[in-house]
Each structure stands twice: as structure tokens, then as C-alpha cells.
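Running co-folding for NAP.
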Amino acid sequence: MSTVYRAMFEIMSVDKFSLEKVLSVHRWSDNLFSFTMTRPAHFKFTAGQFARIGLKVADDLVVRAYSVVSSPYDETLEFFSIVVPDGAFTSQLQHLKVGDELYLEKVPYGFLTLARYQAPAPKDLWLLATGTGLAPFISMLQDFETWQKYQNIHLIYSVRTAAELAYVDRITEIVELFAEGHEGFKFVPIITRDPQAELHDRLPVLIENGQLEKTVGLDFDPASTHIMLCGNPQMVEDTRDALKARGLTMNRRGEGNIAVENYW
Ligand code: NAP
């Protein structure tokens, strides 16, 4: 999802979209919520991709990009959102109710998918998220292929406060359902504004001082590591630099360790 979408207040032709119904809304905290909606048969996506969702504001269609939380095999589509103060889109979206209608662009977007990796061969997968950037990783973890491909899977999730740690129970359920016999999964929450939390430094610091590797018990090995970053754009930039300093490379044309997606 590029920053192009952030400032966007687009008027688009509605025939690129289908009209879908909201099926459920879940509120995690004052500023975080998720929702599910109907999935049209034509909407096919790969885990890690994002959809473009539209809302009618007055006579305009305002569109934003949202990574899909649900698995490519689910019958419905789920999304995870923050309320952006005074945001044209989420300030409306936060009032979403079951039965409301949303526009869904007919095709998905994005390259934060496991299929992009040709080399190195898959062995260790690190999924590093801040905030709502967790969404694409929940989708990937609900795909059996992810568990078959990787010997070690580490989901690292940085939030400001414990109240913002969404999807924790769901992660436990996913592991029970998808990871039978898989010994290499670790979930590591980071709570940056709680000095009592076991891990409370930002991701680049935890990489630089070796604490992240120590916590999961595995080093970043350029020969066997795939790392995905999703969330706060500054986090993506700073973490990418910290990883490059450790000898990991950006994935280009299929080769290299690091793949990234900015969440806004
Ligand atoms: P956030 O500020 O992105 O914080 C989430 C986690 O990322 C926290 O642990 C935070 O640590 C960490 N973090 C922030 N900057 C970092 C960096 N440079 N390197 C490493 N870690 C970093 O929180 P959020 O609740 O997801 O979003 C905050 C703001 O972003 C909101 O005010 C919202 O307006 C905006 N936002 C917009 C969109 C959108 O437009 N679609 C989506 C998401 C968020 P610290 O506690 O140390 O800061």
C-alpha cells in the first residue's frame, strides 16, 4: 500500500467496485476495530494482499487500502482498522454497523506475499508488524502452505499499550488449527509504552541489541531468512535499515530477505 493512498480523496467510477454488506463489527479499543463483509465470487486474492474499500461521503466515493485479515479460503472478508482522528474515511468507517454497505474494488493489490520469494529457500519466516500492520500476517498464518514451507515462524507484534494488542486469542486459535505438529512458531508481543513489559523497546533497537533474536532463540541468517515488515512507515524504514546492517538484503525480483509494506 503506497503513501499515494493516504492523501487520497478520490472520486472514482463505481463500476470498478462491487457493493458488499457488512456482516460483523468488533471493537478492540477506542480507536481499533475490525469488520467482516460479504465476499463476491470474483474477488480472489493471495494472503498478504490488500483490497481497496470505498465509502460514499456526500456524493463522492472515498477509497482506502486495507490488507485482508481473512484467509484466501474464507467465504467472507475481514479487515482491521484504526480510527484516524479527523480522517475523511475512518471517522465515517468507525460508525459502521451490521447491514451497512461498502464498496469493494474488484481486484486485489500488493506484493507482500510469500510467493515473491525465490531465494533464499524458505526456512525461517519473521513477520514484523506494528499496529494494524498485523492484518496481512493473520491472513498468511491461515494458509496451510505457510506452515508447510517454513520450519520456524516468528510473529512479532509491536503496539503502544497492552489494550492495543488485538487478535491475540485469534492467533492462539490459528496456531491450534493450522500448526499441528509444527514446533517452530513463536509469538512475541512488544508493548513500547509499558516499561514493565518483557519487550518494550522499538523493533530497530531490539534488532540492534540482539534482544529479539535472543527472545526467539534464533539468529537472522541471510542464507535462510525471509522477513516481512508491515505497519508504521517510519518503523518500516528504520527496521529495514537495522536489518540491512545485519547483512540482510531487500527482496528484489524474487531474491533477498526483506519484503515491506507501509500501512499508511
Ligand atoms: P504507531 O504510532 O504506529 O505505534 C504502533 C507501534 O509502532 C508502537 O509500538 C510504536 O512504538 C511503534 N513505532 C512507531 N514508530 C516506530 C519506529 N520508527 N520504529 C519502530 N517502531 C515504531 O501506532 P498506531 O496506533 O498503529 O498508529 C498511530 C497513528 O498512525 C495514528 O494516529 C493514526 O492516525 C496513524 N495511522 C494511520 C493509518 C491510516 O491512515 N490508514 C493506519 C494506521 C495508523 P512507540 O510507542 O515507541 O511509538
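Result summary
DSSP finds seven helices and eleven strands in the chain.
The pocket of NAP is lined by residues 6, 82, 84, 130-132, 158-160, 192-193, 202-204, 232, 234-235, 238, 263-264 (CB under 6 Å).
Job closed.
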